[in-house]
Amino acid sequence: MKLKVPHTLVLLFGMMVFALLLTYALPQGKFETIENAEGRSVVVPNSYEKFPEKSLLSVWSLFTVLPKAFADSQGIIFFIFIIGGALSVIRATGTIDAFLGKMLERFGDKPQILIVVSMLVFAIGSSTLGMAEEYLPFITVLIALCLGLQMDRVTAVGIMVVGYGVGYGVAAINPFTVMIAQEIAGVTPTSGILYRLILFIPFFLVGWHHVQKYALGVQMNPSKGFRPDENDIKNNPITSYPLLTKLHWFILILVLLALGLIIFGISYWHWYLTELGAIFFGLTIIVVLVSRTSPSKAAKDFGVGASELTLTALLIGFARSIALLLEEGQVLDTIVNAMAIPLQKMGPELASIGMFGFQSVLNFFIPSGSGQAYVTMPLMSPIADLTGVSRQIAVLAYQFGDGFTNMIVPTNAVLMGIIGIAGIPYDRWFRFIFPLMVKFWVIGSVALMLAVWIGYK
Predict the structure, then answer these.
(1) Residue 226 β-bridge partners
(2) How far apart are CA 271 and CA 283, in angstroms?
(3) Residue environment code for 413-444, b if the CB has 16+ CB neighbours within 10 A, otherwise e
(4) Which residues fall within 8 angstroms of residue 238, CB to CB, at 6 or more apart?
(5) Strand, helix or coil at 50?
(6) Which residues are CB-contacts of 350 (< 8 A; sequence separation ≥ 6)?
(7) Is the pTM of this model over 0.85?
(8) Which class for 201: exposed (0-12), middle (13-18), buried (19 or more C-beta within 10 A)?
(9) Of 21, 44, 94, 447, which sees the most CB atoms within 10 A?
(10) What are the pLDDT digits (tens) for 18-61?
């Protein structure tokens, strides 16, 4: 019997119902909080106290909490819509397709260079702009190139999925994961970027080695590869793409300048979501002008791009509802205290690894990175305070759990879409990716312990 996982919104609503039931079953209580040197409210260890009397939420609160959650999350939601619209306008100019196509064309006859350069491009795109779904059209191009070079479809999918998985796992400024998690945790957006950039190197090298070793093994022994039908690339891939023009290069430079301005603005001018959204919207206007795109067409592209992230916005609202119910029912601190007690006994190093494991498991049920951040960070942030782990490390544990696990969980729509286009059965993909996941879980655990030891904040 095939396991059928409900839609993520169904799972989140089920978690809302469960959260309401928890408010009835658990004792109410609260931690004492103080303001730290950075002006953020943090939990005082061992200060949890139960309330002598209990007040229950009504069932009606299950329905009123959702509008409250959307209102509470409006900054992130509108920021996501603006980014989606901006990326759609940029892609409509052909810049992204032309760049990826040129890169594949340039290194298409050099297998080892093709693997490392392609993976690097996919990883950087995910690490900075949170790209994932945008890669789907290129899987057929990669399949054609890999088959032509005596590799197989698993190699092609590995190049793309491992690349974007590493990009998400140690994202530098991914607006859909790291920046949202840092915002919820009360951590300065994009802070801690140096350590994440350093971690990018070993994770990328291990991922690249795994893909390349498999690819070279298939080249030497084709019987090891997965080629259900070499003469029929599924979905009739189009291996032609726009030519990379001077205009495309100019637009790429504009995007890089915008990202640089965002990092500078956050670091020195204390910019936040309003200013970041303004930069992306301003970038959109400039791209429209320099590409001489019709304003009406640009508006349509912007709307399409924003609409594609509607589900993400809904997931954020539903996920935030869970935490709001627990907060209004005054049992959130009760849950945090219960989770923190065993983690406190482990010490900060093992506590950070425990957070990593928790996030990895939860990603099966909530494959949306932003949705997962809203569900877990309200819990993980105070637990970090209680266990002597910095909130920055709690964010890093979330990134590892979300990003790396995206490469293996069958509830991840992007992964299933990619292997579906490639015609690869999930069990075949699982056999390829699981050994790499073990390596990433080990390296991630070591990286978190190192973060504790160096006082990563």
Answers:
(1) none
(2) 16
(3) ebbeebbbbbbbeeebbeebbeebbebbbebb
(4) 140, 141
(5) strand
(6) 343
(7) no
(8) exposed
(9) 447
(10) 889 989 998 998 877 777 555 656 666 677 788 888 888 899 99
